[in-house]
Amino acid sequence: MKFGPIPIETAEGAVLAHSTTAGERRFRKAHRLSAEDVALLRAAGISEVVAAVLAADDLGEDAAAQTIAESMTFRGIEARSAATGRVNLHAKAPGIFTVDAAIIDAINAIDPAITIATLAQHAPVEKGQMVATVKIIPFAVSSALVDAATKICAGGEIFAVNAYRPVRVGVIQTVLPGIKPSVLDKTLRVTEARLARTGGRLTAERRTPHEIAPVAEAAASLARDNDMVVIFGASAMSDFADVVPAAIERAGGTVIRAGMPVDPGNLLVLGMLGGKRVIGAPGCARSPKENGFDWVLDRLIAGLDVTANDIAGMGVGGLLMEIPTRPQPREPLPAKSQLKVGIVLLAAGRSSRMGGPNKLLALFDGKPLVRRTAERALGSKASGTIVVTGHQRERVRTALAGLDVSFADNPDFTEGLSTSLKAGIAYLPEGCAGVMIVLGDMPGIASDDLDRLIDTFRKAGGNSVVRASHDGKRGNPVLLPRSLFPAIAHLEGDTGARHLVEAEGLDVIDVEIGAAASVDVDTREALEGAGGVLQD
């Protein structure tokens, strides 16, 4: 592949490196030029373009990424169709991600043109979450390099999502004088919540004195009828021959490991009894916050073996207690009614079809259209509104003066819609479960319309795409769940939410809101027909 400026006369078949405009025609980045395209560019006075010229043995970026992805062996994962040189791979079910780092490293060492990125080893994942991505950096790559990657992929399973299983768990809590029943009751609630997140079920509880014999008897009994036994000691393990490890051995089991290099979680005990796993829970497991107990429990529920060597290898990354920003997935999820939705209001466009004036500054009932739209966004149930500016950013900001909105400037607005989506979502607060993309040029949208979309999103649990419609036809706004945010970060060119919704394959719920969903004002005639007055 050759890359650089080339004369327009020899540009047929070349792939554009940058968006290019010829009169009213705009060619996107990565567009392959046809003879007709070349004629239009030449007529517009363009003498050369920066482009990539593919050699006979080159594969285009999409074909190369697709070929590599199709050569991989994986479980519990689905690969999406290639777009912009990228294939994203997503979990089919919640579980634990595992990856063969040697295969990934070998592919990434072939050539910088071919890259694969994945989640960390043993990362917990949700259904639909992206776990890996294959990305071709240039517009094309030699087929010999792609062949080298596919040969490495033939070496075995490259990664997997090990789905959680509906395990049955029996719990033992030992008791010493001074232990309040409320502490034991809370421990049960926290444990039930932990198991519910992974599809497990707490089936029985025994409360015994903090002594070896009664704990051993309870463990043997629970192991017969359950898939796993968890023991919460009233006193922390202070020696490898203390009550919990000694009780496992007294019951006829074996202790695999006592103690782990994860803090909090140091005092965990892992054993085997009658073919079932027994975990002596550290004291920190009484709290919903992430600790070493979670790491072992989740892997076992996902059907993965945990050995003494596995636990010994958890030290790097195992210092959890001093990292207050570390995610705590075991905390209860917010109620559906509390799921936060942010609004990204797109106001960066050039209104090119208007022939000059900025449609967002047109007056509707004496008020600039962009201010009218922002006020309706602020009047909805959304947690906040971010306005993306670009073209005539200062005039747009002036039109919004005094409103409680945040601004995200997009200096690359001429490169297409994707740049504004990325700029807006980058400003969203961490706690947002979803984002509603609101176009600035839809004068019929009301706060009640936005609330109907938000209510539907919350009712669906915050995992679906919710889209406004009119007479059964899709329209705007569109509400996207947080699981799509990583994919949005990879969009390029004039690609928007519609493309993303179709590519990611999530559930889509259409909400009928009437004509407001389809009325925008892209042309002077449409704007004036909707009651707007253009301003110079």
Automatic annotation (TrEMBL):
Q: Where is the MobA-like NTP transferase domain?
A: 344-503
What terms describe the molecular function in GO for this protein? transferase activity
InterPro entries the record matches? Bifunc_Mopterin-bd (IPR012184), MoaB/Mog-like_dom_sf (IPR036425), MobA-like_NTP_Trfase (IPR025877), Nucleotide-diphossugar_trans (IPR029044)
Cite the entry's keywords alphabetically. Magnesium, Transferase
Q: What is this protein identified as?
A: NTP transferase domain-containing protein
